[in-house]
Predict the 3D structure of the following.
Amino acid sequence: MTADSRPDRAAPVVNCVVLRAVGRLEALLWQRRKAPQADAWALPGGFVGMGEPLETAARRHLLGKVGVRDVAHLEQLNTSSDGGRDGAPWLIDTIYLALVPSDAEPELPPDTRWHPVDDLPQVAFGHATAIDLARRRLAGKLSYSNIAFALMPPRFTLRELAEVYAGVLGTRVSPTHLGRVLTRDGVMAPTGGHRSAGRSGGRPAEEYAFQERELVISRPLAAFRTLAPAVAGR
């Protein structure tokens, strides 16, 4: 096989954009120690085993490489091929979006760290593009689904939820308006519990919970409007 020819078989790999929202939106990256792109940061992932489902491979690498098991939502983002540069094998790379609740505390390896998506370090292999795609996918789904459940603990206040929306969307969000919309749509409901006001005083904050802890489309027409510009090629 010549240097310019493709290998007989492509190697399937998965990489995961792991996001959490703790006042700001953060992505989980690990630092490479070897070439190519030594010292750059990369998405967790790896090769897919023979006959292994892609989602199974993604969860295996998340647990085995970066210690993440509390994935509340996992979905495919994109699949692309990479043409064996510098003698590397021909890869078919499937990117996953993995969402982790804010109260999850995985035991991360020393070479792994959370980074603000608005202030990323040097990122390897074009993975910064995948992180941007993941953020845009998440922001779009916030407008027509209950996907924020995957970023929240079981119980939360409206202010905490609004901070998560703001971290993803990059703009201020009114807790009162957000709560009104999501309760009206049946996405979440008050639990009857209250959060202590603490030293700041004031009224105790009402606690809420999502009605479902799996993805539900709450506004189908909003989903269509989100997709329409891409479909129209605008």
